[in-house]
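Take just one protein record:
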Amino acid sequence: MKLFSTLALSALLGLTAHGALAAEQTELKGCAAKKQAISEQIEQARAHGNSNQQAGLEKALSEVTANCTDSSLRKEREQKVLDARHEVNKRTKDLDKAMKRGDSEKINKRKDKLAESKKELQEALDDLEK
């Protein structure tokens, strides 16, 4: 009975530790998250035998390790959000002009470009939260 209790306690502690580790990995932010993402890509490249991609990713990882700070990364991501917002505003104006002219072909093209710009803005906002 004591052996069973010891085994059950060990298993429970192992699962708890694993859960805590998984929770810690999902909460990575900033440069730590960026390093983790690159490391995962390196492992995938290694698993698929893609040595060129692996070498490029290892170089990127060393540059991130040497140069990345959370404040510089945040500024970079904030700038991407600003640029994306500017692009959405520009595309909205272009669509408005096309709608005033009534050219259905240009309207459709402008709608597509606006949708693409909105998607890029959302991606930039998502990155900013990382």
User: Anything to note?
Assistant: Residues 70-130 form one domain. The mean pLDDT is 85. Residues 70-101 form the longest helix (32 residues). The CA atoms of residues 69 and 78 lie 14 Å apart.
